[in-house]
Structures are given as C-alpha cells and as structure tokens.
Design brief:
Distance between the termini: 12 Å
Bound molecules: 6-diazenyl-5-OXO-L-norleucine
Number of helices: 12
Radius of gyration: 18 Å
Shape: globular
Oligomer: single chain
Helix content: 40-55%
Amino acid sequence: MSGISQIQHILEHIYQKYKNFDDGEVATYIPELAKANPEHFGICLATVDGRVIHVGDWEQEFTIQSICKPFAFQMALEKFGRDITLKHVGVEPSGEAFNSIELDPKTKRPYNAMINAGAIAISSLIKKDPPEGGVEEFVNKMGLAAGRKLRIDDAVLASESLTGNRNRAIAYLMLNFGIIDSEVDKTLQQYFSQCSLLVNSQDLALMAATLANMGTNPVTREHVFDFTFIKDVLTVMFTCGLYDAAGDWAYRVGRPAKSGVSGGILGVVNRQLGFAVYSPKLDSHGNSARGILACKDLANELGLHAFEFTNVGSNFMESML
Ligand code: DON
C-alpha cells in the first residue's frame, strides 16, 4: 500500500470508528449555529508537498468561529510587529473558558489572542475605517491560505451581532483600560465578521498546512504569511488554542491547534502537514466532542505528538509520503 493510501486508510478507519458517536451539544448561544446538522463529520489532512486526503463531509461549509483567532494574531504581528501587538495582548494561558470576562490583573491585557478578549483586542488593531476594508483584507488572506475564494455567512454574522453582548462587555472593559480604542462597534464588526467566515474541512487543513509550510500554501505555492511570526502564533496555539482543555490536548495530541464553537478543529505539524476535523456537537469546554476524539486517534496512529520518541512521528510520515 502506498504512503498516501495508508493515510487514507487511517482516516477512513477513524471516520468509521466515530461515525455514530453522538455525545455533546451543538452551540445555540448564536441562534444561527443551532441550525447545524449534528451528523456532519469530516476529516482532512494536507501535507506540505501539496497532497490532500479527506473523508466524510469534508466539503460541508461552516463558519470558522474562533479558528480565525490565530490568523488574525498573525496579521497583527505582521502589521505591527511584536512590541506593539504584545502591548495589547499577552501570551499566557488563561485556564478559563473562551468567553471569560477577565483581564490580566497586573497588565490589564487579555491573557492571550485565542480567547475572545484577546481576539477582540487584535481585531481592534487590524480593523480599518470603514470596517469593510479590514474585513475584506482578512477574508482575502484566508482565501489565499485556503487556496480558494472565501466569503462571509451573512446570517451567522447578523445572528452573532444581535446576540454578542458578552463580547460587547469584554470590549468595553478593555476600552476602560486603554487596551482598545473607542471605535468599539467597528472593532466588533471586524471580530464578528472574522468569526463568520465560511470554510470547509479542506480549507482548514490547507490553512494549517500553509502555517506548517512556513507561510506558503502548499498547493497554490502562493506566499501568504510572514514566517517570522508563525512561531509566535504556533506557540500560543499550543498553550492556549483549546482554552481550558489546552493541557489535555497538549498531553494527548501534542500539536498546536485551534478550535471553534461551530465544531471545527485545526492542527499544525510544523514542516509536515495540517489537519482539520469538523463535527458540530461540542463538549463542555466548547470544543468539538467527536473532533477531539478523532484528533487524538490521528495523533496516535500517525505518531504526530511533538514529543513522540518511538520511531513513528516525523520518520513515519516522511517514509509514508
Ligand atoms: O465570540 C464568539 O462568541 C464566537 N464568535 C467565537 C467563539 C468560539 O468559536 C469559541 N471557540 N470555541
């Protein structure tokens, strides 16, 4: 069996194993997200040499939600550099839920760019006036990373704006401490729009593979991200990407990743591949319940954990491809 068909076989095995897994709840706090079909389950893996392997509902679109956060952080670092960006957001895990209304008591910064507070601070930096310009820039950059033109889901955007008072509270708290400027509505328009970007599992896997491939999309060969800052982004994804489940993820999967409340998870194996899973039912941490299980199996079967000592991991992948 060739390397690629061996990986296809592993993906199919994981898909079949969890196909009927039904735990968790679809997110309802943004009413439009409650319409997701809980049966949808897609897995995709993209290698840095441009091979893409997928199973299940990999073509099913969903909104990217919090998986926009590492990419927005990357954009802020590219535009403003480390010194300025890190005046607005820290790099410490919060150990709290994604929507916690809490800032670092000493610095008044949000703990990191993966929680809502940090992502809103980043949106404040990268927004434009009028806000449509900043949104368009983000959408275009994500399209380059995915290798196809992407668009916003207007219904989710409207639903999120209508019900986003907790994020408004977080934003006003940060305005009070001078972390964001007074254009709160424009900042939130940028943030809500980023979250409402429509993607499928293959888009996420290719975005992850673009990070893994030093910023170049492995299929289109387009240079998308400045690799100087990818290590910053991957580090914060590693320690904070799964919120208050980040420790368990680091222990079991051992790779930088980011989840979103619509049920997506994306992971990066530096210089090798990106992987993504979509399944809308969430666990108590707000992460895709079936997605987490599938990623744990994927890491195990392919030996992806960063601290794997046995002769799988990178050696295994290299020999397979
Ligand atoms: O801020 C929100 O509520 C959402 N738009 C994004 C949250 C999210 O995806 C959290 N991830 N698990």
